[in-house]
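Now read these lines:
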Amino acid sequence: MASQALWRRGDTIMHRHVGHADGRVIGWPHVVVEDGPERTVLYQPEGAPFLTWNQDQQHFEPHLTVRMYAVRIVYPGRPYYVSLWFEGETGIPPWWQPHFGGDYAGRFRGWKVDMCSPHRRTVIGFDTSDEILDYIVHPDYTWYVKDDEDLTGFTSAGVYTEEEATHIRQSCRDVLPLIEARSSPFDDELIDWLPSTDFALGDYPPDWHLDPGAGTHISSLNYQRGEPGRSYDAYRATSTVPLWSWRT
């Protein structure tokens, strides 16, 4: 994992989810708000593209755009990142209504904590591997964990080992004291944040999906042990459970 220089305020970078078991590489361009040794703060504008490359079929999936806007905080070495979601001009989309559609005053709709492998700097931005579990934290600090059943399903299918799943759940529990203590970023530092007029998305590499590492899954347990990642489809060699079968 090569070390990369810090990004400058206003740079456009790609935040990628890599190594998905379904063969998809997901990319979101962001504007850099700040980048330092303790944290990186990124801005995802409303209307930004949501990009998906299908590695198995070698094509892009239908183009989507982001509804609402987000401030996304990445912490070096930590097995999660935190997004603050704000209502924008197009309102709250149907898929976010169950999570961020409550009756709260103001634009700020809450925090989302994504469990993931610690972020790796790349020449185009940051890579991480999603680890399924999320916290939804409302502005009134009520919270819940979502997608635990998906983690169970992925483990049954062989995408995660039982040891990895245990590690992910423990890492998730470790975040709770920060939420309950209202420690940064679960404080009021950014809940009134507004983008600067010069925070506009610039160009991003058209071959962002081909940058090395796009097909590499690395769990936070791999990362903690200094072990290399594995191919996104490595589970297929041994699994007898079709992916997503637990949802049918």
